[in-house]
Every structure is written in C-alpha cells, then in structure tokens.
Amino acid sequence: MNKKQIQMSDETAHNNAISIIDALKISGVIEFSICLFFAKLVSYTFLDWLPLYISQTNPGISSSQSAYMTIFFDLGGIIGGISAGYLADKTGASALSCIVMLIFAIPSLGIYYLFGNQSMAMNEALQFIAGIFVNAPYALITTAVSAELGSKVPSKSAMATVSAIIDATGSIGSAIGPSLAGVVSEIGWEYVFIVVMIADLCALLSILRIGFNDCKRLIFIWRTKKSRNNSANQEIISVTTY
C-alpha cells in the first residue's frame, strides 16, 4: 500500500468515526452506562473499604489479616464474571443476565452485613458469595456489552467510542463510591451497606427496559421452537397413521 492509499484509508476511517452524540443515541448505551456507574460504585467501595470494615467489626483480626481475607471477594468476582459471560452467551440476553446478578447482589450484601462477623469462615464464605453477584455485572458490561453495542453501528470506529463512554461513566462511580463510603462510615457501617444496596437497586432499575425486551425476545424464540416441534410431531403422527 503506497502513501496515497494509506492517506485515503485514514481519511475514510476519520469520516466514518461516530460522534459522542451519535454514540449516545445507540439504544442501550445510556442505560448500560448508568448501570455501570452504580455497579462500579459498589464494587470499588468494597475493594477499598472492606479490609477496614473487617478489622473494625472483628476485634480479633488484625489489619494485615483482614487485607488477606478480602481475596475471597475477588475470587467470587472471577466466578461471577465467568458465570455472567456464559449466561449471556447462552441466552443472548446481556441485560437480563445483569439483572439476575443484581437481584441476588442486593440480599447478598445485606446477609454479609448481618452474619459476616459471626466467624472468620462465615465472613469468607459470604464475601465470596457477595463477590460473585456484585462484580458480575461490572465485568460483563465493560467487555461483552460494550462490544455488542458498538457493533450495532456499521462504522468501525463506533466500538471504541461506545466502550469509552460506558467505561468512563463507570469510572466516575468508582471514584464517588469509596469517597462517599468514607463519609458515611463515620455515621455507621450499616449506612454504607444501605448505600451500596440502593446503588445496586438503581443499577437494576436502569436496565429494566432492555431486560424486558430480552424477556420478550426469549419468550418469542421459545414459542417459535415449541410451535415448530408441535408441527413436526403432528407430521410424524399423520405419516405414521397413513
């Protein structure tokens, strides 16, 4: 490829680049951006403040021990991210997969607060469970969902713009969450958990429209397959009878 062809290729790519306004008009970009804002707020609040919470609510555990204990929250996040990705690939419903995880994330946070200080083993187990559901939507949105939304536009430059918008919005949440937790924790740790549970609820509500559309699509596919199977069975019966 000569210099002139390279220049023309660059000009074409520039002309095809999607603007931020056009990227925001893509169905789902704003909803998933808001969802990631709240999902990252919760995830980073735990990542930054969980060691301090454990050391303050469990007098027998030192600061270094509490830091090591938080690895179970991260391990849960690994399992949650893989599970959410598999569920999204299996169903083709990313929003619905996130909603399912968020539905379980809210009570898992409350259960961890109520029973996490019973014993070290209980704390680690409930951390692991909470990590699965808290980190799964965050992992799914920043990867598969961003690529899926970016691919809705023919322009090759859309994917990077859409991913940047979603991730940047989430990064705002990751900055606000720990800062807010620092202020709220002075009142009481129970209020920190109330804040993160409300944040997960807001994340869930923000993608309800897309999740509802996913449900309608899955029901339509299921009914179509069922009707085809019934038609095939009727043909077999008629042939056998004949």
UniProtKB/TrEMBL annotation:
Question: Major facilitator superfamily (MFS) profile domain location, by residue?
Answer: 29-242
Bilayer disposition of the protein: Multi-pass membrane protein
Q: Which domain of life is it from?
A: Eukaryota
Subcellular location(s) per record: Membrane
PANTHER family (UniProt xref): MAJOR FACILITATOR SUPERFAMILY TRANSPORTER 16, ISOFORM B, SUGAR PHOSPHATE EXCHANGER 3
**GO molecular-function term, one example from the UniProt record:** transmembrane transporter activity
Gene Ontology cellular component annotations, sorted alphabetically: membrane
Q: Which InterPro entries match?
A: MFS, MFS_dom, MFS_trans_sf
Classification via Pfam families: MFS_1 (PF07690)
Q: Work out whether the entry's keyword set contains Coiled coil.
A: no
Protein name in the entry = Major facilitator superfamily (MFS) profile domain-containing protein
**Residues spanning the membrane:** 29-47, 67-88, 95-115, 127-147, 159-185, 191-212
| Keywords, sorted A to Z | Membrane, Transmembrane, Transmembrane helix
